[in-house]
Records
---
Amino acid sequence: MATNGRKRQKSIHNPSNGDTEENEVTSGSADAPAAFNPDNVTAQIKKKGKERLDRLEKSSSKSRSKSKKRLSLSEAEEEDQDNGDYEVPVKKLRSSDSRSAKARKRKKSIIERALSFLPGSKPHNYEELIDKLERMDEFGKAGDVDSKLEQFMLFLYKHYWRVETTGMENIPNKGRTMIVSNHSGVLPFDGAMMATAIYEFHPAHRYARCMIEDWFGRLPFGAEFMNAVGQVRACQENAERLLKQEQLVGVFPEGIKGMAKGFKNRYNLTRFGRGGAIRLAIKTRTPVVPCAVVGAEEIYIVLGYANWLGKMVGLPIFPLTLTFPWLGLLGFIPLPTKWYINFGKIIKYDQYDESVLKDNVIINRLNRELRATIQEMVDSLLKKRRSVFFG
């Protein structure tokens, strides 16, 4: 039997969390056992359980934050933890975070900017477009030269190639006229500089409509550039139509052979075809102004030609220069050589009628004479030039 006033301790087992708590129970008297209060025990169990649940919730929140950094967006899973009747909710990870959203937005803007250069991607000012079409002639040239293009041509003429032009007085102020020139430079910059000189510095500011080979229109933006500066596809019919409109026409009888003669044979004029320029002058009663261009032969140092590659892309020639194709698009940049352009005295063929067009002997003789005249002009400019890059 227990002694009165003696204290006893009883171990109480908490079935909910498995922990053992020591609770003191004081006996009421010597003869009666210590009073047991179940409400106090229940309250203590609930308190301990709540603390335990709070700790579990904190640990689960930490694990969720770590898993967000660790898991990929496609591998997000739902985490559940249960403790008795208590459930800890874990939200499902979002399919995208702020970084991925910014990256997608940046990629979208780049794609939109790239697509904006495609035809039809931007709304047109139809009134301006209609006005431009109304001012175009039958060859696609607008009435006025674009100011930006004009400034670019003037930069090449004055500062890059430092062109010196003589004999401008030999070009008539009006009426049909044909300029016959040597051809060189791989790309038709010689015709562009001739046209710039006449438009900017001739008293009448005439447009020179130069005949351009078909292959140039196959280059990127070649056709657009050709139409913008008023150049025309080279053929007998186009030249006749322009001359009948009393325009100034530039022709290059050497054709592709003149552009592909190589660096060793520069400034040695090739054969002027079958006399097409002479036949055109006689048929249309057009005076001829011979022209010599020096400086264009050195803008590209041609090492050779891989014409089999040109045939694959639809080009008659494929030059191999010091810079192309080794430097890619940068290889198209021409060298800043010193240029000279000279317009000779007018040659007329009024004494011949159309019956001469069937006489190949006379046509070939006149053709050789014209070629010899231009060759002499080229040789004279070469003697005047002191160096390739400096005057």
---
Amino acid sequence: MNTAMTTRPWRRVGHAFVAGGATVLLIVAGAGALRAGAPAVHEIYVHVGEHEVRALCTDGPREVVMLHGDGGRADEWLGVLRRLDGEVGACAYDRAGFGGDDHPAERGWYEFLDELRRTHVALGFQRDYVLVGHELGGLYARVYAADRPSDIAGLVLVEPAHEDLLRRMRLGMPPEEWSTWKARRERPNADRVVEAKIAERARTSRMPSIPVTVVTGTIRRSGPGWDPRFLDEAARQVHEDILRGAEPGRHVPASRSGSDPQLDQPDLVADEIVRVVGASRRSRR
């Protein structure tokens, strides 16, 4: 296994950051978070097999790993990372490049989870860390914790995908939107896994006895053919279902958020991460 960590001195050129001849475009929030005087969030690179993985990390002992949703980036966690700086050592990383081409060949869920684990180890995480996941990353986090319980000391699931969410939201969505969603779940995604298959794995997985927080947004999409109230209730139900298998568990509504509480209410998400980290620390004493 080839794992190596590097940091790069970045200089800004317009809206891009340049290092070592490579140019990477960052969203404006990311550029602000990495400026001098901002909380210490560092951009680092690790090599995992043939992939170079970009991560954003705070200082301190490694305690929290953050997984973005389908098609996301580490940058969506910047607001949360800035609030964790000085309290918790945390990293969020891009899975961009894991999938390869535009029509990736499917791989099994176990192979995918092993790649996640190798990335975590390359970033300095060994055992007893808290795994945070948004949307599809939340579904991955549940399966990861169930299959590697000795690695994970707690979970924070932010608007997590769920194996029953598609079924329960059907009556609140336009038929064409629902059909598109269903078809997308049946083919390999950017991570080269089929969401429907890993969802079935989640259905049969047993949650380890660790602290778990589920954060649920309460502001749903509206428009012709959409029923936000129905969608709110469907999300609440499936997220409560997760906690029925978790002990101890906590369900937190994000009252000013839709599907992205880590962007809309980073303070709330950071507070829940700190709480779960504190509980995991106490359990190790």
---
Amino acid sequence: MANTRITQGVIKPNEDYDVRHINATGIVTAASVDVTNNLSVGGVLTYEDVTNVDSIGVITARSGVDVDDFISVGSNIHLGNAGVITATSFSGSGANLTGIDATALKDPAGNVKVQAQASGAMHTGFSTMQNLRVTGVATFGSGSTTIDNNVVNVGTALTLGHTQGLQFHTQNLHSQGFEVNQINASGIITASKFVGDGSDLLNLPAGLGTALSSTQSSPLNKIYYTNSVLGIDNNTTIDVPASASAAYTQYTDINIASGADLIISDGDDLIPDVLGLRPDGTFGGGALGRMRVDKLVGKDANSAVNVEKGLVISGVTTAETFNVTGNLSIGGTITYEDVTNVDSIGVVTARNGINVPSGNVTVSSGAFIGDGSQLTGVSGFSTALSNTEGTLQNLIFKTPEAFTIGAGTSISIESDNTSGNTAFTRLGRINVSTGATFHVSAGTTFVMNVLNVF
């Protein structure tokens, strides 16, 4: 088709024209432009109020590109040095963006708040977070850490809080003091006052009693008690310094266990019950103490005990060998049982009798005193109403009136020529039980009620 040249006139509407070139110095307005081949623009192609731009090349905007919805770019958007892209949000990778300081976060004034470092990030200022989880190590610098009106729980064991202080399991550290099961310290613990049981404390001044109350204002704090028995379970030696006069204890009884030794060094004294608290005497003086031992021996375990000032025995004393080289003064009664030999130049008093298997009992001087009812071979017609010499009752006598021969018992009476074949009794009557026999031998004269008092 040949080109049509229009120099003057009017192009009619609703008709198509094939044109080789259009040179326009003004504005060309078209409802749509359809270019089937190339569109070559030697200058600048300016278009305004364009709804869609579909470009496979570069789009250069004079004063910006305003997008109401979105821009779909197949490859890249290149902006000149003066170009700016403004949007309410950007989506996608920003890995190739330049001019961004990725090592720090700043506030609007340009102050760095978070700075990336080789060891992590350094934060300056205050941060408010709903939840903070640290899976590694959290380190706080030289400044202060404030937790306002909240509780910090470290697992189930440790609690930090404003009201309860520091709580580890059931142990508390708060403004009212410690509530701790045990404190192990290798250094020095200093306090204005210690309260509680001090029985296991070492190197304390000696105390003779324990107050009934630890409250200073209570009268019971000035009233004391002490235990009665001091047990010694192991070998113990008492050796006081030369500057001391004696060793003493407030315990009223000292109990030495079997197999243990209590050794008192030469020249030393041990005073038990120094406060005199035993209930069987007056208070004070330390004279009422008691030691309970199984055996007393010398310090070398082989020698005898030397009792310099005497020995007072208020109970029963049992001795295998009793050797007195000097005088033995006994103010009361000396009692001995199962004694093989008694060599006495004084009076021997027997509680249950003196059993002499063989031989005789010889009294060189003095007399036997006591109940002689069990003595055999002693004749007597009566018994004094009193054993007290010099009293009337000692001179008034009594004798049994009758004697009964029990059933099954057989009694035979026989005298001899030296006695004139006569036997007699003070009894006024002899009762012979059924089944018993009483026989007076032939030639023997038996006289009853010889005292003639019945």
